[in-house]
């Protein structure tokens, strides 16, 4: 019995306890980065999660924890709604090989799940240009997983079912094809429920892909009224077959928008009037200056002329006076 117990503890030290679901082997390029999703059970929702580095569970060391600050090398986030925490490893090197997704168990042994990174300086054997894919509800989306690996191709939802050729996962259809070293997955009829983490799988390699599906924006029909609006124009009786009646909205003219437009126009008119008034004032001032200058010149000429005439009169008076003397 003691031998069996010791052997069991030895296996736990090598492999950890599997209450966590994640990838097993991911091919990555040196110098790049990779985000790994770790799905956990509901009972660990409020527990601290962390990334542990090392080949063996009982000797691995903390790399990053959810209650610690992120670093340039490691970052971690926990989505408690979907019960998935993600770890991102940056600036990958050959030493970034063995890691564990782990949950801190207060008063007991922690739980972890091992995953391996195959870091290469060449092109990864299974790769994707972008791990984050976005789409609108009802759209068709194509995901290309470049691969040089052999083995069966599968498309899996993390912690869920897998498809090998075609089928449906959570109401979204998937079709798998392989052409010239490209593992192609076509998603048709996207649904918001299809958002989440998936895995491109080829042989013993996986590549995690996150899909985000959002609702299509609602098209709003704006009806603008004139000064004398036609009442019938405010109540459309015909609706396009492609646009349900429930999505057609009547948008009344915005009072604040009209007031803002009026204020802007009034301000421009005031500025223009002030500029014209300034130009007119400067013109009149220049004209008045010219008139005053001309009047001054004329007045000076008249003064000189009077003085000259006076001098002549005085000269004549002096001559008459001298002629009457004995």
UniProtKB/TrEMBL annotation:
Keywords: Membrane, Signal, Transmembrane, Transmembrane helix
Locations listed in the record: Membrane
Pfam families documented for this protein: V-set
Superkingdom of origin organism: Eukaryota
Immunoglobulin domain location: 23-120, 130-214
SMART domains linked: IG
Positions of region (Disordered): 306-326
Stored InterPro entries: CD300_family_receptors, Ig-like_dom_sf, Ig-like_fold, Ig_sub, Ig_V-set
UniProt keyword annotation of Signal present: yes
Signal peptide: 1-19
TM spans (from-to): 262-283
Biased composition (Acidic residues): 311-320
Annotated GO CC locations: membrane
Alphabetical list of PANTHER family matching this protein: CMRF35-LIKE MOLECULE 3-RELATED (PTHR11860:SF118), POLYMERIC-IMMUNOGLOBULIN RECEPTOR (PTHR11860)
Protein name, UniProt field: Immunoglobulin domain-containing protein
Organism: Pagothenia borchgrevinki (Bald rockcod)
Lineage: Eukaryota, Metazoa, Chordata, Craniata, Vertebrata
